[in-house]
Structures are given as structure tokens and as C-alpha cells.
Amino acid sequence: MCRLFALSAAPRRVHATFWLLEAPDSLAQQSRREPDGTGLGTFTPEGEPLVEKQPLAAYADRRFAEEAKDRESMTFLAHIRYASTGAVEPRNTHPFEQHGRLFAHNGVIADLPTLDDELGEYRSMVHGDTDSERLFALITKRIDANDGDVGAGIAAAASWVADTIPVFSLNLIVTTATEMWALRYPDTHGLFVLPRVPGGPHGDRHLDQASTAGRIRARSGPLSSRGAVVVASERMDEDPDWREVRSGELLHVDSHRKLTSTMILDRPPRRRMTLDDLGDRAAASQTAV
Q1: Which of 147, 14, 141, 161 is nearest to 73 (CA)?
Q2: 3-class SS at 148?
Q3: Average confidence (pLDDT) over 79-85
Q4: Could you name the CATH architecture of 3-277?
């Protein structure tokens, strides 16, 4: 499945280093399906989004994903793509940017023609072929309909999807220069949150977290003395404060790093899909490690 990782160090910008892939130097690594793309989203001091992403279609693309990326931001969003819909191209690689917000998704939704009809003029915001970018455009449309309220927009979009089109998984993260939102729905894939105290559980350690699948690693020295909130598709270290996000739970981290939780969906999708309902490619993308 796709890997999600997001970090908020609000209200301060911090330096962090990301490695989106490990070098393929072990038999265990060779036995895994290779991902189809990697991406990292941050924000400039002026609040402008900076997206660096690459499909993994060539050796040069792989080197891009393995190189250390030292960036400064208040929020960070990293994604490893296993393609379910859309070609292995830059336009289909996460994160996506719309109206100054960044978005990444782990899951599959179907009946894209119905979703396109619902998007209306917002369909023009979709430049690739993926269900993920269409979902983001629907969220953007609902945010605009709710006078810029991002949480309300996510809730309205997720409710429409749950009631209208087939859903396998809808885990997603949205970031701005100062805030972060994350939704897990339904309970198909895990999503975890860590409100990390300054210095971590030992009180004096920098942040150094890594996916067990060897895909995403993040390190930040300033977080040895500052707090952070991390959301990821798996527990990234041994900190005991990790918890699994509940199905239908929307998290919000504000510009002062206050974490709040709201249950926005207390029902299963009306048309819930299983792996047997997916095509071979989409099914493989949801089980890959």
C-alpha cells in the first residue's frame, strides 16, 4: 500500500532530513514490490507550497528518491506511491497541490465518471489520471462551499464519497503552511498519530523515525527540544504515545500544534469494496510492501 508521513512542528519552522527510499542492498529489499513514485511537500518561509516528486521509472528517478533531502518547514508531507490508477508519471505522483494546500492519499475509490460529474468545473483542477487527485478536487470544492473551512470540506467530501461511490480506503492527509488534517476511513488500512513531546520519551532525543518497510525515514535535530505531531501509515519508532486513528476520525493540528479529533463518519461505506473487487493492479497496490 502507499505510505503516508506528515509532521507538524507548529508554530515554528524546523529543519528535517528525509530519505524516501533505502538503497536496494539486501535480499529482503529485493523481495518487495518496488514503488511507483515518491514525493515530499513543504512550504517556503512565505507560505508557498514546494512539491518535489518523481515517478520511479528509471535509475535516475531512483537516485532522486534515495538522496537525503534537507528541508525547512513548519509542516512536512511525504508519500510513497504504489499505483492503483493512472500511469507512472509526474502528474500522477503525490503530493498534489491545489489552492495552496497539499494532499496525499492511501487507498482506492471507484466509479470515477460519477465523481467527475460531481466535480463539475472543479474537474479542470485535475491534471492527471488518479482517483486521488479527483478526491482532492472534491475536497477543494467542498472547502470553497464551506467558506474556506478545511475540516468541514473534508467531512463533506468524505460523506459524499461514502454514500455515493465504491470505497476501498480513504486515508488522506492535507497540509497548509501552518496546519494539518488527517482522516482514516474506513478501517481497511491503518493510520497512526503521535503527539511527540519535546525530545521524545527520553526528553532529549532528536526525531529519527523510519518505516519498517524501509521506505520513509525522517530525522530532525531541532525536535530534541521541541514538540511535534506526526501522522503516518505505520508506527515509525518505539515511542509509546503512538495510537491508531479510529475509522471515521478526522484529526486537525492547528497553527499552534493543538491536536483535536472529530468523528465525521460513524457508518461504513454504502458500497464498500474488498480486494476481490479491485483489478489486479489496484489490488497489488493495496498489499505491496
Answers
A1: 14
A2: coil
A3: 79
A4: 4-Layer Sandwich (3.60)
- Hey, is 244 helix, strand or coil? strand
In this structure, what C-alpha cell is assigned to residue 162?
Answer: 461514502
Residues forming a β-bridge with 70: 17
Domain boundaries, the chain: 3-277
Instruction: State what percent of residues in the chain have pLDDT above 90.
Output: 75
What is the identity of the amino acid at 81?
R
Distances (CA, A) of 13 to 74, 82, 116, 155, 255: 4, 30, 37, 28, 11
Give dist(CA 85, CA 282) in Å, integer: 7
Q: Is the pTM of this model over 0.90?
A: yes
Phi, psi for 69 (deg, rounded to 5):
-115, 110
Q: How far is CA 59 from the centre of its chain?
A: 25
Residue 107 CB contacts under 8 Å (≥ 6 apart), including other chains: 2, 167, 168, 169, 170, 171, 172, 188, 189, 286
